[in-house]
């Protein structure tokens, strides 16, 4: 009992810590602090205690310290979860993923500092961090599920709905990549209007710059995701009206994607307000994490179908 209590605390701290890692990474990119420590890693400018302190250095170094602390915490969580509840079908796989992708994102971040990378490669960094966050979040939910805090085992998701959940989750990852590409190519404010690049001439594509194509490509991808999520939510909530997990979960998913669209528009209207931009990154992280939970439930449903 004492170990399970410790495990729950560790899982919650790890999940919250990963939120700081994700938003910290977005903060580094949005404030142009990626070079705050020069081209050295893990030290700043090759010094244990930096001699010249700048705001960019503080942001970059803080992100590295938080990520390093999270690495230790997640390893402890993964080992304890493996030992205590490894009998649960998904635990060992998620424990491995949470550690692997957390260290993968750290190594990609280090490589970006030491060796200059192009924007298309750098955009992968946020996606890798997102997978690590989702793995830790799912591990946390499993730990609380084992402790009987909630029960979702009675939910059986039909095959056609499972396939749609897989598809929309994969597509979300693509949309996340395009959003990261907008940040890394500094394309946030290349379009002065919303939802079109120029509301006065919405179909005038002839003189678009590369940055404007990236920005509008992301907006189009995000619009498709919103419409897809809305229609999927209506279908799933209607088909599983008996399930509190499905109704509540997809209700939250719809709320998150609506807030994501709103915050994306506010980024333009507020001329890249930092708080709104960080909120934009946080909302999509929660959205993707919840979708991954339904991937987990879908995989269970597939297993139950095969056994019956």
Automatic annotation (TrEMBL):
Membrane topology: Multi-pass membrane protein
Cofactor requirement: heme b
Localization per record: Cell membrane; Membrane
Alphabetical keyword list: Cell membrane, Disulfide bond, Heme biosynthesis, Iron, Membrane, Metal-binding, Oxidoreductase, Transmembrane, Transmembrane helix
Pfam families named among the record's database cross-references: COX15-CtaA
Catalysed reactions, as listed in the record: Fe(II)-heme o + 2 A + H2O = Fe(II)-heme a + 2 AH2
Cited function: Catalyzes the conversion of heme O to heme A by two successive hydroxylations of the methyl group at C8. The first hydroxylation forms heme I, the second hydroxylation results in an unstable dihydroxymethyl group, which spontaneously dehydrates, resulting in the formyl group of heme A.
Name of the protein described by the UniProt record: Heme A synthase
Species of provenance: Virgibacillus xinjiangensis
Gene name, Swiss-Prot/TrEMBL: ctaA
């Amino acid at each position: 009992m004492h170990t399970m209590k410790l495990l729950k605390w560790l899982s919650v701290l790890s999940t919250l810590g990963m939120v700081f890692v994700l938003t910290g990474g977005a903060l580094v990119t949005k404030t142009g602090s990626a070079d705050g420590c020069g081209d050295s890693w893990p030290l700043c400018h090759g010094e244990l205690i930096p001699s010249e302190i700048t705001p960019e250095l503080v942001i970059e170094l803080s992100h590295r310290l938080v990520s390093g602390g999270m690495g230790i915490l997640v390893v402890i969580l993964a080992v304890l979860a493996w030992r205590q509840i490894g009998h649960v079908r998904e635990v060992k796989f998620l424990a491995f993923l949470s550690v692997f992708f957390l260290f993968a994102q750290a190594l990609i971040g280090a490589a970006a500092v030491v060796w200059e990378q192009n924007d298309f490669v750098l955009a992968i960094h946020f996606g890798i961090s997102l997978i690590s966050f989702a793995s830790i979040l799912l591990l946390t939910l499993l730990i609380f599920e084992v402790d009987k805090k909630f029960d979702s085992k009675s939910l059986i998701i039909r095959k056609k709905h499972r396939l749609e959940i897989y598809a929309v989750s994969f597509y979300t990852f693509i949309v996340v990549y395009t959003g990261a590409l907008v940040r890394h190519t500094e394309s946030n404010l290349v379009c002065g209007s919303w939802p079109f690049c120029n509301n006065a001439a919405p179909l005038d594509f002839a003189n678009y710059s590369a940055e404007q194509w990236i920005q509008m490509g992301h907006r189009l991808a995000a619009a498709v995701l919103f419409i897809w999520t809305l229609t999927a939510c209506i279908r799933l909530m209607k088909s599983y009206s008996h399930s509190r997990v499905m109704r509540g979960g997809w209700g939250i998913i719809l709320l998150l994607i609506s807030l994501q669209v709103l915050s994306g528009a506010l980024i333009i209207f507020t001329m890249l307000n930092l708080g709104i931009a960080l909120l934009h990154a946080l909302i999509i992280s929660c959205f993707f994490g919840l979708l991954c939970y339904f991937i987990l439930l879908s995989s269970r449903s597939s297993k139950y179908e095969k056994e019956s």
